[in-house]
Specification:
Blueprint (H helix, E strand, L loop, with lengths): L4 E6 L4 H12 L3 E7 L7 E2 L2 E4 L3 H5 L4 E4 L3 H13 L3 E4 L6 H10 L5 E3 L5 H13 L5 E8 L9 H13 L19 E2 L5 E6 L5 E9 L2 E9 L6 H10 L7 E3 L6
Parallel strand pairs: 1-2, 1-5, 2-4, 5-6, 6-7, 7-13, 8-10
Antiparallel strand pairs: 3-4, 8-11, 9-10, 11-12
The structure holds nicotinamide-adenine-dinucleotide.
The site of nicotinamide-adenine-dinucleotide has 24 residues, from helix 1.
């Protein structure tokens, strides 16, 4: 009989974290054994007390810890998890390339998977954008999120631009000579690909990748209308992170 995987959730009181606690509690082969958050400490989720200290993860002997918080918090939590030999599934966004490198170095005795997007449709959107990139000379990314998102642009937009830039270096220069409103042309992502962030009441998470070449445009769009869209990916990552052959994995592509 396969052993049940003991899962802890950091950010358990947040929008994503609370949905993840529900998904883990319902998933076969996973058991929610610890929950940590700086707010709602003292509360209870699925019979598990929400603690304010990471120590609760060690006390509960977690095999896997899921982190959906903010980049600043995760910069402390991830090395702590590595030090305590726990596998990490990380959905927090807003990391720099240096952060990713330091996580890669920290995990030497357990595995860490960091993914900017756990929704299968978004993973496919990134893959399609990467495939399309060599066939177009202009591309811009527009990401749309709810009005409480702390970081911009989204991790998904940055990861999409990084993959498109790796797939093609033949991008046309920006023709803009005068930006009437600073920022009107968006931010410059990897490969010079422009990234535009929209923050909107009523939105969850959407993205459009717009590509153009002579006489034609291609729009690849993905919408997460509900946070449950991320749950199959998070549950899959919890089940598989311990068996990954690499200590550090970026994205869930290799799990699909
Ligand atoms: P949220 O603000 O609702 O939740 C974050 C939670 O983290 C809060 O409850 C907060 O109290 C807690 N927190 C902050 N610092 C902490 C610390 N030091 N220790 C413990 N808990 C701490 O935000 P959200 O909408 O749930 O998003 C969380 C993160 O997940 C963001 O970075 C967001 O961009 C990312 N996200 C990723 C995906 C994905 O598929 N990878 C999808 C959606 C959101």
């Amino acid at each position: 009989m396969t052993r049940v995987i003991r899962v802890g959730v950091v950010g358990a009181a947040g929008r994503m974290g609370s949905t993840i606690c529900d998904a883990v509690a319902e998933a076969d082969g996973l058991e929610l054994v610890a929950a940590v958050d700086v707010v709602s400490a003292g509360g209870v989720t699925h019979g598990v007390a929400i603690a304010s200290d990471l120590k609760a993860l060690a006390d509960a002997e977690c095999d896997v810890v899921v982190d959906f918080t903010v980049a600043d918090a995760a910069r402390t939590t991830l090395p702590w998890l590595a030090l305590h030999g726990m596998h990490a599934v990380v959905g927090t966004t807003g990391f720099s390339a240096d952060d990713i490198e330091s996580f890669r170095r920290a995990f030497t005795g357990s595995n860490c998977l960091v993914a900017a997007n756990f929704a299968i449709g978004a993973v496919l959107m990134m893959r399609f954008a990467e495939q399309a990139a060599p066939w177009f000379e202009t591309a811009e990314i527009i990401e749309f999120h709810h009005n409480a998102k702390a970081d911009a642009p989204s991790g998904t937009a940055m990861e999409t631009a990084r993959r498109m830039a790796a797939a093609s270096s033949e991008w046309a220069p920006d023709p803009t000579k005068h930006e009437v409103v600073p920022g009107a042309r968006g931010g410059e992502g990897p490969g010079g690909i422009r990234v535009h962030g929209v923050r909107m009441v009523g939105m969850t998470a959407s993205q459009e990748v717009v590509l153009g070449t002579a006489g034609q445009t291609l729009v690849i769009r993905h919408d997460s209308n509900d946070r449950v869209s991320f749950m199959p990916g998070v549950v899959l990552a919890c089940r598989q992170v311990g068996a990954l052959t690499e200590r550090f994995t970026l994205g869930i592509d290799s799990l699909l």
